[in-house]
Amino acid sequence: MDAIGSTRNRFSEKLLELLDHVEYRRVESGEDMEDVARIRFKAYKMADILPLSGSTLIDDIDFDSHAYVFGIYYEERLISTVRVHHVTPEHRASSSGSVFGKEIDSFLDAGMSLIDPVRLAADPEILKEMPAIPYLTLRVATMASEHFDVDRCLSLVKPQHAAFYKRVFDADTIVSPQKNCGNYKIDLTLLAARVREIRPWLYTRFPFFDSEPFERRMMFNGNERASFTPLTVRPTARLAMTTQHRTRMPL
């Protein structure tokens, strides 16, 4: 094994070790949403991304029927959050669409479906100690992409973060960097990953992104704020690595 491969394996094992202490929680209660707002406030203030007001910390689209808000907990402490939109030709609500509507509509008009992970926010203090938090958080997007069997997973990000999404997800640039986009106070670019095409490669290279079907069902089945939704979901990446003859969506 070459040095790069060895380093990648050590990194993957470190992420799997961190996942052993992680829980994912669908945010449905007012108390949990307040915790999400606090994390967003800390992250947005540090990055100077949005005007800090109640309408940007928690907004109406958080409660859209195709939106899934998650808190990521490490040893029972909230460390990050993400909102995932399942975007379809029939249901087009998404944050990326509000910024780059023409490009998103082009995908949808072609009959494609999308996952739009937005409002990624990590506690800045914990992020300094645990720089792997973005991987733990974006694992939600990989699970959503497989559960809903979408065509693309979007990345609405700062231009300086684009290299990460290209390296990890082989994402394509859809919109080159644009200045002061919409309500955002920063430059943004839009990328999209061809999720079905990259999935076998991604899970081989980064096995911590993998999951079992029952984990994905617990994460995303039903969005009616139903009482049977599990309070927390434990990652199944290690189990997925050892499960033989798994049935996956066709490539």
UniProtKB/TrEMBL annotation:
Pfam families recorded: FeeM (PF21926)
Domain N-acyl amino acid synthase FeeM catalytic core: 35-192
Transmembrane segments: none
Record InterPro entries: Acyl_CoA_acyltransferase (IPR016181), FeeM_cat (IPR054597)
Protein name: N-acyl amino acid synthase FeeM catalytic core domain-containing protein
Originating organism: Pararhizobium antarcticum
